[in-house]
Amino acid sequence: MALRPVVVTGLGIICAAGRNPVEFWTRLTTARGGLAPIEDEAFAVFTARHAGQVPDEWIDAQLPAGEQAGDRTARLALVAARQAVEQAGPARAAPAPDRFGIILGKCQATPGPAGRYQPMHHTADVVAERLGLRGPRILVSTACAAGGNAVGLARDKILTGEADAVLAGGVDPLLFGTYAGFAGLQALSTGPCRPYSRSDGLNLGEGAAFLLLEPLDLALARGVTPLAEVAGYGLSADAYHATAPDPTGRGGASAVRRALAEAGLTPGDVHYVSGHGTGTPANDAMEAKVMRLVFGERAARVPTSSIKSFVGHTLGAAGAVEAVASVLALRHGVAPPTIGFDDGAQADLDYVPNQARAMPIDTVVSNNYAFGGNNVSLVLARPRDPVPYEPAPRRQAVISGLGPVTGAGTGIAETAAAIAAAPRAAGQAPSLEGRTFAPRSLWRHMNRLSRLAIAASRLAWEDAELKLPRKALDDVALVFATGAGSAESTGGFDDSIALNPNKPAVLSFSNVVLNATGGAVCQTLGLRGPTTTLCNGAASASIALDCALEMIDAGKAEVVLVVAADETPARPATGGASAPFEDDGPVPYGAEAVEPVTGSGAVAFVVESADHCAARGGRPYARVAGTRHAAGEGAEPVARSLALPGAAPGLVVGAATGLPRDGEEAAAVLARMPGALLIASAALIGDCQAATGAMNIALAALAVRDGLAPALTGLTAPLAGDTGSYVTRPELAGPVAGALALTAAHDSVRGAVLLEAV
């Protein structure tokens, strides 16, 4: 029997080639592009000034008066999201709010009203709040592959039964700094780009696009006409270079093959390919290799085109923009052209030059590639009639290796010793002195965040005692979780732009994208399996674990490496910026709490199918018994996140960091689980955003297998309950049968992970 078919029922788009799907499709099929010179005087410093821009009046005309001011990124996203929801049917037939999710792809952090970067997940939070969506909420940041990646992850959420509908898409505005970075890489064309023919550079663009996904049976029950089926998707890592694609095309080809296999199709079933087609020499040559690797002698007869010739490269929105075009191509039986194609170009592939082509189309493959070596391929097909289906399989998974790199220690042995000694080490910087976890030729060029993540990944791998042959690494997956990416690279790049936008720090620019760190891990460890980057603040690690479990359930991987890393400036202290806070560190759950101490760190853990771990004789820490996430603001999501069926943990590792709002969490835990003891990793390592969430999961695993848990030694006046409800001495009576790890991106997403003894 087949899996439950997932279909697209609504489309929304705003970009340089149209303010809605109808106008967008008209311009694609009549070969009217939207690339034009940038009129903003700030961009006059650049030689190349063509881009795909969205007029402000297009945005404002489609929004209620109360949404016409403020964050432009969120306004773009709201326009496309509202269009998709409206096309999908009347509100009275929509899914319940807690069954309606949003997964958004985004490449760039965007500044808020005060000029500071907003959390990456802010845009998704705004759209969810405006539309009343309380289901799964994920920000995926795999650079230029993010929009397509979001559509694939949305399909997973429906197949697992976590949602009845998901808005999946991408958004990115045209930012001066990003433009300067691409100009510094000499990647921009001086005129409208010409993918696949002249290939002399790309044009940047901006925009937003959403697809509304839901199960076929529910769509038909609502009386909605499905537009296309999301039949499958594939992810892969190049493990090759920070910015350049693998010239052999094997990473891109792997993503296509995985997508087709998931869809139950072969290359012979594909009628049209929506290409990435940036117009740069490296990308266009690599894509031709992918076509030949996947389609063999048939490659020249499979039409493939690039709509970036119409709209420019919309970065995190690109995959979603091209997915919308692919659905419309299926609906109308027309392949959009590659405009600006040089008729004299020597091309041995069919790039649909300059004019749209009517043709039978039942299956489309849409491909995207990104800095950091991320590849995604979507398979979109004409909707089928309803078919018998079975629920997505659920497989047991275990955590088999831990790799903490924090101020409390590097590796599990040092961390365990620190727990036993009960230090107040929050704020202390992790130390990698004297240790190299990658070839020196790579290590010396890496930023600090990549070094931390690679060290954590290697230590987790070693702790799991994994010894896999090189070929098996092609199927090992990686999920990278981060709240903000590299502060070092972002700061260095911004400083260079301020000094001279024509001489940006291009090495820093290549590491500004949040998935760059995950790409560095893949490159160092040689991992080429499914790879993605999630960015939901301090809740990122538990969402990443969810993603890993879905990969294992779907048979996409038997081994998934989850790594979370963040860096923040340490608080000044007498002993220096990296000194621990011995007297005034954070006191989670305490009325005597001070301002949380920020920290830096990386924590990795190996997730395996229980069968795989047992077959190789591994010694797991714990079984992943369940996960749950709740979106929204205030205290109510705290209680919802704790509602795991059958959860009766002996220990709860909380998300508290030393703020008064810690009391909400403690009260909810004590009310639902009165026999559990509370701890929080922030007392040990400080607030390290995504790494703190991952540390909570690691500490829960340690408590289950080894009976270790850090003490809240400074807690004397709890905000909820009494001190008997907390671990205040560095010892447990022994291993606990179950432990719950909590994560929290406040006013966005709360997470809970239940681990049990194997």
TrEMBL record:
Classification via InterPro entries: Beta-ketoacyl_synthase, Ketoacyl_synth_C, Ketoacyl_synth_N, PKS_Beta-ketoAc_synthase_dom, Thiolase-like
Question: What keywords is this UniProt entry annotated with?
Answer: Transferase
- According to the entry, every stretch annotated as the Ketosynthase family 3 (KS3) domain falls at 3-382
The keyword Transferase appears for this protein: yes
Q: Which domain of life is it from?
A: Bacteria
**Family in the record:** Belongs to the thiolase-like superfamily. Beta-ketoacyl-ACP synthases family.
Q: What is this protein called?
A: Ketosynthase family 3 (KS3) domain-containing protein
Q: Which organism is it from?
A: Nonomuraea recticatena
